[in-house]
Amino acid sequence: MHVPTKVIAVANQKGGVGKTTTAVNLAACVAEAGQRVLVFDLDPQANATSGLGLEKTEGASAYRVLLGEGSLKDKIKKSAYKNLDVVPSEVDLCGADFELARAENHLHRLAVALRPVVETGAYDVVFVDCPPSLGVLTLNAFAASDGVLVPLQCEYYALEGISMLNRVMAQLHENGVNPRLELVGVVMTMYDGRTKLSQQVAGEVREHFGEKVFETMIPRSTRLAEAPSFGKPIIHYDKYSPGSAAYELLAQEFLARLSGSK
Fold first, then answer.
1. Which of 25, 52, 55, 181 has its CA 20 to 30 A from that of 84?
2. Which helix (H) or strand (E) holds 84?
3. pLDDT tens figures, 157-197
4. H or E element: which one contains 97?
5. Domain 6-261 falls under CATH 3.40.50.300
């Protein structure tokens, strides 16, 4: 039996929380585990694109496709890693928020573009790396996704803003834009077990979200921070580092959740 492709938006409207780090490294570990993975870089900063070793090339993003020109299949690029393909981003996506807002059926542009790719059955999981905002691009990702994965930094304002994200997801449910959207889970990032603050925040988040919080926490790590400048996910940059071990564990946990929801 063919298992349908799962589309997962990796999102947090707050920047600097390890969102792209999580999208890139979780995708790489899921691919390494034998799943066929597509990373759709929807962030105009294109950090997931360069973090996976691809150039930021003019015209390479899904911008024109979202406006109804051409096919998303033509935008897919192979990465250097087995089972891992990429729809790259570049700065022209900045214009998409404005252009899409004026377009007909503006919240469903990504869903329409992605549907033929999903229907090929070529991928088990599509990770959409969203911009750090709740603008039209992120809302398009939510409208096209089965679930949202939220990276949360272990710091004071961690829970702020998540309530807004939850509210937006609930609205998309209620008004029929995407009734199947659910919170896949919350990932605690930049965790430092030596500090009381990290422990407190982790405890608070678990109290608030219960089982939705992944057991695996991503440590604060120099190697994780270095890897993108070499265009490599941590598993291919320093396989035996704590950051790599954490993302491998997260991938196992993520896949277990996914198979539970199929």
1. 181
2. strand 84-87
3. 887 778 888 899 999 999 999 999 999 999 999 999 899 98
4. helix 94-102
5. yes
